[in-house]
Amino acid sequence: MQDHIDRVLIDRHTIAARVREMAEQIAADFRAAEGGCDPVHITIVPILTGSLIFLADLIRHLPLMMQIKLVTVSSYPGKSTSSQGVELQGQLPEDLTGHHILIVDDILDSGRTIKFVTDLIAARGPASVRSCMLLRKQIPSAINTHADYIGFEVPDEFVVGYGLDYDGFYRNLPEVVVLKKEVFA
Ligand code: IMP
Ligand code: MG
Predict the structure, then answer these.
(1) Phi and psi for 8 in degrees, rounded to 5?
(2) From CA 149, how far away is CA 108, in angstroms rounded?
(3) Is 73 in the pocket of ligand 1 (CB under 6 A)?
(4) Is residue 60 domain-resident?
(5) pTM for this entry
(6) How confident is the prediction for the chain on average, in pLDDT?
(7) Could you tell me the residue range of the domain that residue 98 belongs to?
(8) Model confidence over 62-75: pLDDT tens digits?
(9) Ligand 1, from 9, 71, 72, 75: best to mutate by most atoms within 8 Å of Cβ?
(10) Is 74 in the pocket of ligand 1 (CB under 6 A)?
């Protein structure tokens, strides 16, 4: 697996430091929205599968009462490296009335996934909805899509690791990397 890596874009220490920083900002913002007190609870909505590792690290730095409601969405089936349209797999959380929601995803690319999930959640009566992405591609579709928290900007390349996959693989790489061209051949 290591010999498939062309170059490391973001190393594990840089990711860890930024994730901690993001969590501090998120906790401060949720508290500020409640007038300096802890919100009653927040509901984290991770978009699976790509947000898995980011989610696990982020929530351990978030000292807030929280529930987690998983959403599974697929837009890059199999070996595709461009969005094939967003598809919800399985159920959405039923009732989110009055919940303070934080949607967590791995990367903002075309923006379709986050728009799709935000719209579905907004229709379920939450008190507030924020979104948090580890990565954002430096392309107009991503930059022009609203997101409340962004970890890192990345170039317009297909990246894997730290939860992101190619054809289901490489999620367990601890760093965000670009693969060698021959891997896609
Ligand atoms: P969007 O809907 O185009 O914004 O893309 C969001 C989803 O596509 C993410 O949640 C990822 O699962 C997947 N994705 C987009 N770009 C990449 C990439 O460079 N590597 C791996 N997955 C990606
Ligand atoms: Mg995803």
Answers:
(1) -90, 125
(2) 11
(3) no
(4) yes
(5) 0.94
(6) 93
(7) 13-28+40-155
(8) 999 999 999 998 88
(9) 75
(10) no
